[in-house]
Amino acid sequence: MKSLSLFNLFFLLLYLSGTAIGLDVEFYREKIFSGKTLVVLIKDKDEKIGNVRGNFLGSEFDFYRAGDGKYFCARGVNIYMKSGKYPFSLDVRCRNGEEEKSEYKIIIEGGKIEKKDKIKIAEENIKDVTKENSDNENIYISLIVRQVTTNRLWRGNFMMPVKGVITSPFYGFRSINNGAKFFHQGLDLACPEGTEVKASNDGEVVLTEKLISRGNTVIINHGQGIFSVYYHLSRIEVKEKDILKKGDLLGLSGMTGISTGPHLHWSIFANGVAVDPADWIDGSIEKFIFED
Ligand SMILES: [Zn+2]
What we know:
Blueprint: H1 6-15, E1 16-18, E2 24-28, E3 32-33, E4 37-43, E5 49-56, E6 59-62, E7 64-65, E8 70-76, E9 84-94, E10 99-109, E11 116-119, H2 131-145, E12 165-168, E13 173-176, E14 181-183, E15 187-190, E16 196-198, E17 203-211, E18 215-223, E19 226-233, E20 235-236, E21 243-244, E22 249-252, E23 263-270, E24 273-275, H3 278-281, H4 284-290
Parallel strand pairs: 3-10, 11-13
Antiparallel strand pairs: 1-2, 2-4, 4-8, 5-6, 5-9, 7-8, 9-10, 12-15, 13-14, 15-23, 16-22, 17-18, 17-21, 18-19, 19-23, 20-22, 23-24
The structure holds zinc ion.
């Protein structure tokens, strides 16, 4: 039998923790890898909470109601975060005027690299890409996926948007033509040009545009800070403000923008941070929040 080390004991204590006014605070995952989603659930069985705010990694945010007496937040942990213990604080205001602040330590294990991935792209294909327009494009995207709308449109688990083969994992460390080195923050799903690309969950289309690096791009807002992005499409079949259901066609796969071959680049963002879609696809985040 495995012995319970002090280290493990710490995680058990962290995982489920009560507060003085009788709230249960639960953390999805005992320890979190950078690039994953931290989910925190507050159980308020006596319905005392009037308002609850969290503070983590330098930003302050609201919790969302997840049914009777439950509140949650889903926060992306940037893949570039270094290992360490980081404070997570809660500021609860009760209906009766009582206030409570509490602080927890989140253990982040940083920079897990599963696979190194060197890609070569014909210089011809990147002739239009400059440091300036690529930086601008990154800022443009990050401003879109950082928006917060309070309505939750996503329901249930997220689905893979194409039936494809994963060629590059979320955690791949990539260099292009031995130059720029970065974490590849998404899944590359290899599929023949023209493969139908489906919305991975319910949401509103907030961007349909041809970009220099990402090619034809669709971004869906699923609400409460969760977005999914679809790059390199050959065709876009939706327009901005369209409301999509999970599985609705949004475009056809291709290789527009910087791409070594036909594939779909797909990512999920939580509060503006690209996160590993695995926990959203298998439904484990959703179960943690909504099932008892
Ligand atoms: Zn990609």
